[in-house]
Amino acid sequence: MQTHVLDYLTEIVRKVPDKTAYSNGMEGLTFREVYEQSRAIGTFLSDSGVYREPVVIFMNKHPKMAAAFFGVIWGGSYYVPIDVEMPESRIRLILENVRAKVMICDAETVEAAEKTAFEGRIMPYDDICHTEIKENVLREIYERALDTDPVYIVFTSGSTGIPKGVTACHRSVIDYIDHLGEALGFDEDTVFGNQAPFYMDACLRELFSVVKFGASACLIPKELFMMPVRLVEFMNEHRINTVCWVVSALTFISSLGTFETVVPKYLRLIAFVSEAFPVKQFNKWKAALPDATYVNLYGPTEGTGVCCYYTVDREFGPGDVIPIGKPFKNTEIILLNDKNERSGPGEEGEICIRGASLTLGYYNNPEKTAEVFVQNPLNPFYPERIYRTGDIGRMNERGELEFISRRDYQIKHMGHRIELGEIEANVNMLDGIQAAGCVYDREKSKIVLYYSGETDEKTLTVSLKEKLPRYMLPSRIIRLEKLPYTANGKLDRMTLAKML
User: Fold this and answer.
1) 3 state SS for 79-100
2) SS3 for 374?
3) pLDDT tens digit string along 361-377?
4) What is the spatial distance between Cα 488 and Cα 305, in angstroms, rounded to a whole number?
5) Residue 406: its pLDDT value, please?
6) In 358-450, which residue ranges form alpha helices assigned H by DSSP?
């Protein structure tokens, strides 16, 4: 039984050592290079006395960054990715939380790293990736490892403004990658087009699936996601056939008429995550690439990535909701009502996750961990953790799980309980709309709608009066050139709320 994520790398390097594992279109690393450079880094860390502790990776998104992750794991420690685009205050809070002894940088980030509050050793990647490998040392570290040892810490936003470090272990990563790959059909011919930043858990889909299946990943330059035609041309140039992207990246392409100029002709699998895919935009993708497989993914960082999937098998029209389907193998989804009882058929409930894919909790934060990683209320007989997502869902008449809303997005307005997501969904159905986001001004008891698109506010107001009951109509409608999004591709409602 596999118990260590490095088994993926050691097995695949024997099979296809000279195949490119990760590239950015200009530079790349083969499996052999990833293997050798990561083992050198692991040896360096061991020689430095770093073991079973966090190591900060402060690098630009590059194939070497992936090798650095594996290097930390070879050394028996766990990596903490940060990014130069993070605000200085957030970087400072992360460094204060993990208190690492070593930070690995690249030539471009060393200067920025030296300006942080980091008190440990700052080591350039190119200085340590050629360390003489000590086979006996790495073997001893590997043999002492347990499947409950941490692999990484990634930081998510906290409701108080303090980031929370989600800590995943070998067991949860293996469970996730094995079942994700089985459900989506990854293989050695898969060429991923990576969109997710390397400091988010979303990149696991490419990072570990590449070494699991002997696939390849092309790290798409971030600036291309501002140029939809050039983005698709890049995908065709590198024969990308698989994407697992946030919905906003996909709608950015479809909403701007890109398919009239060029289509991503090699794409065979299009997986989407983070937000509900507006059916109008989804159908544009289906029309452009009718033979591709489309998969809706759902899951929180605390579950090591995504935990549910739905392979689209029917047509969806205006007003329909694309389900999030069913959980991966070895995972159970429990819907709990306000009485901590299982919700009945068609009844809404909080989505809770049970299974080996659950992470260890929040690093150095037992209070926040205890709030959401709780005893299963349906099992009073022995200790069993579940994760309470804060998301509301229900089972439809087909037995498929549907995402309804965040618990945070439910409001009480004019005596009615309202899902802000329902307002957004109705706006997104309209022509001339690219994206929409609702927030609630509690001080003034007003619903405020922000949107981007060609439609003017007056036309949108008239259209919504035909779709929504009076108590759900926004009090204010504000058009923006572009809506704000978080780093992991979700609509940034906190930023919208600050604009009130």
Assistant:
1) EEEECCCCCHHHHHHHHHHHCC
2) strand
3) 999 999 999 999 999 99
4) 11
5) 79
6) 366-372, 420-428
How far from 126 is each of 36, 107, 108, 225, 309, CA to CA, in Å?
13, 8, 11, 29, 40
**Chain position carrying tokens 């509050």:** 117
Q: Which tokens hold the place of 284?
A: 């544009």
Under a CB-based contact definition with an 8 Å cutoff, are residues 358 and 387 in contact?
Answer: yes
End-to-end CA distance of the chain: 54
The structure tokens listed for 220 are: 């798409």
CB-based contacts of 172: which residues, under 8 Å, 6+ apart?
Answer: 304, 356, 357, 358, 359, 360
Q: How many CA atoms lie within 13 A of 120 on its CB side?
A: 21
pLDDT for 444 equals 82
| Rounded CA separation 368/246 (Å) | 27
Q: Amino acid identity of 152?
A: Y
CA-to-CA separations, 288 to 228, 255, 292, in angstroms, rounded: 15, 12, 9
By three-state DSSP, how is residue 73 classified?
Answer: helix
Burial class (CB in 10 A: 0-12, 13-18, 19+), 314: exposed
Across residues 304-329, what is the average pLDDT? Answer: 95
Structure tokens belonging to residue 122:
């700052």
Instruction: Report the SS3 class of residue 126.
Output: helix
Do the Cβ atoms of 243 and 270 come closer than 8 Å? yes
- The alpha-helical segments, DSSP class H, found in 145-237 are 170-184, 204-213, 228-237
- Closest to 462 in 3D by CA, of 430, 428, 421: 430
37: its two tokens: 């450079």
Q: Locate 409 and state its tokens.
A: 């997005």
| Alpha-carbon span 442 to 413, nearest angstrom | 9
Structure tokens at 63: 């194939």
| pTM confidence score | 0.87
* Residue whose entry in the numeric block shows the structure tokens 């989407």: 272
pLDDT value of residue 488:
67
CB-hemisphere CA count at 13 Å for 55?
34
Which residue is it, tokens 């965040």? Answer: 406
208: amino acid identity, one letter:
F
- Residue for token pair 């990634």: 154
β-strand partners of 491: 485
Neighbouring residues of 48: CB distance < 8 A, sequence distance ≥ 6: 101, 102, 121
